[in-house]
Design brief:
Helix content is 26%, strand content 23%. It has nine helices and 16 strands. It has helices at 28-33, 59-72, 88-98, 122-133, 218-224, 247-256, 278-285, 296-309, 313-321; strands at residues 3-10, 15-18, 21-24, 43-52, 78-82, 105-109, 139-144, 147-150, 154-156, 165-167, 174-177, 180-183, 205-209, 229-234, 260-265, 289-290.
Length: 346
């Protein structure tokens, strides 16, 4: 039997109803009590490392989870992390960088209803997560609603539906059907080196969703607050306004001051491409980094991670522009077709 480690962190799956609403109330032993005979299929070890609603999982908790995962990589065949859904995509993305090239599966999962609820989806999600953790395919994944996604491609797209997560601009890594767990091998990036824990993060990263008429002086404020990086969700393929309110001029000043500026698209699917329009080409001329087809979660956490590894802005930009774990695919590398994750090709 495969040796599986379950790391529990709290979340809805482990919650109970209190006078103040749902709050984590079950430890790992109580959680596994509801799994029926599932643990009998594995050599299961359970460790409680956090007891939090995922809204309270922040960089400090990411480091803790990463260290537990890294330290256990040689003692287990796979690791499952139970986690709240609200920030699960951020955690899955940042773990993809911090324990890059991990040789065993690390699978995050959770639930939309607590495990004690008679209609819970938690048991089904854990079944899928355990199956993927026992598959032998190394990497960081997110399992939900009988689907397995690459960790750096998962996005929470629904608040209450059981199919809460989508794999954006990338095919599913695996899926459960009547045939069991079917893994799509070409959707899992191969390791390109040893697994090394790189858990330093820079928390001075800001996310801006561009709106028409946004005041460019916000970048002056961010510089005064000592932010080292900013991710901008721009219009369409990468447009920013520069008439009357010249954002591009401010981006130039921010870059000259040492801030790393990444621009992605507000559109969930397909890629940004600054070469299409005048506004985009002006942005590129100021040293701004393209986010291409990255998810917001992957871009924000990658910038936090890259700034944690390097202090030289030029080195940060080079590191950010590299495809590390399947999180980025430039228009030059391969065009993206279709709008749904099932239509994508890696």
């Amino acid at each position: 039997m495969k040796r599986i480690l379950l790391l529990t962190t709290g979340g809805t799956i482990a919650s109970r109803l209190t006078d103040e609403g749902l709050a984590p109330g079950l430890d790992g032993a109580a959680l596994t009590h509801h799994l029926g005979g599932l643990p009998d299929s594995y050599r299961l070890t359970v460790r409680d490392i956090l007891h939090l609603d995922s809204s309270n999982i922040q960089p400090e908790e990411w480091r803790l989870i990463a260290r537990h995962v890294f330290d256990a990589r040689n003692d287990f065949d796979g690791i499952v992390v139970s986690h709240g859904t609200d920030t699960m995509a951020y955690t899955a993305s940042v773990l993809s960088y911090m324990v890059r090239n991990i040789p065993i599966p690390v699978v995050l999962t959770g639930a939309q209803l607590p495990i004690e609820h008679p209609l819970t989806d938690g048991l089904d999600n854990l079944r899928t997560a355990f199956a993927m953790a026992a598959s032998g395919w190394g990497g960081v994944f997110l399992a939900f609603n009988r689907r397995v996604m690459l960790g750096c491609r998962a996005v929470k797209t629904h608040t209450t539906a059981f199919g809460a997560f989508d794999s954006v601009n990338w095919p599913l890594a695996a899926e459960v059907s009547g045939a069991g767990l079917s893994v799509r091998e070409d959707a899992i990036p191969p390791a390109d080196g040893p697994c090394v824990l790189r858990d330093k993060l820079c928390e001075q990263v800001f996310l801006i969703k561009l709106t028409p008429g946004l005041d460019p002086e916000i970048f002056d404020m961010l510089l005064r607050m000592h932010y080292r990086g900013v991710v901008i969700e721009a219009f369409g393929a990468g447009g920013l306004h520069f008439i009357r309110r010249n954002l591009i001029e401010k981006l130039h000043a921010a870059a000259q001051a040492g801030m790393t500026v990444v621009v992605c698209s507000q559109c969930l699917y397909e890629s940004s491409n600054f070469s299409l329009y005048q506004a985009g080409q002006k942005v590129l001329a100021e040293g701004v980094v393209q986010g291409w087809d990255m998810t917001t979660e992957a871009a924000v956490t990658k910038l936090m991670w890259a700034l944690g590894q390097e202090s030289d802005p030029a080195k940060v930009r080079r590191l950010f522009s590299q495809n590390l774990c399947g999180e980025i695919r430039s228009a030059e590398q391969r065009p993206i077709t279709g709008s749904g994750s099932d239509q994508q090709t890696p």
